[in-house]
Amino acid sequence: MSMVAQPIVLSARDIQNMPEEGFLDGSTGGNVTWKTLLSSSRTSSDTLTSGLARCAAKGGQLKCHRHAHAEIYHVVQGHGTVTIDGKQQEVGKGDVVFIPGNSEHGIRNDHQEEDLVWLYVFAADKFEDVVYRFSEDATKAKL
């Protein structure tokens, strides 16, 4: 039974207390972690799924992958390199990236001291609707 969408306000404390998630197999997806903020499987929301992702300093990364849903990144801390369809672009705090559906993309943090953190948004009711297909391994990654 799905919830009816309701307005939601998440406080900084709510977000801080959320558990971090990650890929079960970091060798497939990378060592990125995230906190799911809005997803109809967890919140009384619909239409959009969002969260905060983090790549740790000194080599944190989300490996190149594809999914059918378009995605937006808004970098809120640090800087790194995003790759979309083989083209690399440096990104930093305040930058916004639009990633078309089914475009191969990934992001990495080469900074030695500061984590790279970005807000991600999908046009999907719930995070579980987004199927990651990693370039190194065409099988569905386990979340």
TrEMBL record:
InterPro entries xref list: Cupin_2 (IPR013096), GPI/OXD (IPR051610), RmlC-like_jellyroll (IPR014710), RmlC_Cupin_sf (IPR011051)
Keywords: Metal-binding
SUPFAM superfamilies tied to this protein: RmlC-like cupins (SSF51182)
Pfam families: Cupin_2
UniProt keyword Transport, yes or no: no
One annotated GO molecular function: metal ion binding
Metal-binding keyword on record: yes
Superkingdom to which the source organism belongs: Eukaryota
Residue ranges occupied by any Cupin type-2 domain in the UniProt entry: 57-122
Identification of the protein by name: Cupin type-2 domain-containing protein
Organism name: Didymosphaeria variabile
